[in-house]
Every structure is written in C-alpha cells, then in structure tokens.
Amino acid sequence: IELNNSDPSSSLSMLPKDAWTIDSADGTFTINDPGGYITQPLPDIHDTVPTAVTSTYPTRYEITLLTQQWLQDNASGMIGTTDVATVTLDITFHAHRNRDGLQKTITDQFQFTISDY
Question: What is the number of H-type helices and E-type strands within the chain?
Fold first, then answer.
C-alpha cells in the first residue's frame, strides 16, 4: 500500500523536525462474490511494523493482502469461469509525530478483484 502525503488539509508534515512514524495498520475485508466460490473470509489485518515517513513522496507500507495458499484453498472454484469477486479493504493507519508523540489516524478504502485471469 502506498500512502501519498500530498493532501495539504490532512497530510503529515514533511519538515525534518516534524518527522512521523506509521506505527500500525488495521484492516477488514468485505467480499462480494455473486458466484459463491469463496469459502472463507480473508483474515483481518493487524500489522505492527513501525515505518518512518520519509521526506519524499510516497511512503510505502507493505501489507500482505492475500496469499497464494488462501487463493488455492478458497477461490479455486473460479478457475474456468468468467465470474469476478470484488474485495473491499477498509484500512486504518495509526501514526505519531516523533518530536511530541501527537497521534494521527489515516483511514482509506481499497478495492481489487479475484477471478480466473
């Protein structure tokens, strides 16, 4: 996931004295699978890898969305079909300003699809 801190109304300050750290990310998935192929939900994200916010855009925060094993176990029924499942990830990043500990929460939503590509 790539965070772009360019929105002046809600961005994290990029001044060296105001350096920030992303402390964690929490996310939940919603799956819209009209064909009913996906048998188990994707596990929630609870990631606690502190990541420094760099002074260049964008800052990358790596998160595993799904694994090959999960796809094999839960979506293999889609092979040979034209069906598409839409996955929505609601995610919250928790950050703090290093000099004074001021907390910041960044929420976002991402969508991707699962199908027999």
Answer: 1, 7
Q: Which amino acid is at 15?
A: L
Q: Which amino acid is at 51?
A: T
Asked whether the whole model's pTM tops 0.85, one would answer: no
pLDDT at residue 28 is higher than 90: yes
**Buried/exposed code over 28-58 (b: 16+ C-beta within 10 A; e: otherwise):** ebebebeeebbeeebeebebeeebebeeeee
pLDDT tens digit sequence for 75-99: 888 999 999 999 999 999 999 988 8
Instruction: Show Cβ contacts of residue 94 under 8 Å, excluding neighbours closer than 6 positions.
Output: 22, 23, 24, 25, 26, 103, 104, 105
Helix/strand/coil for 113:
strand
| Distance (Å, whole) CA 104 – CA 23 | 10
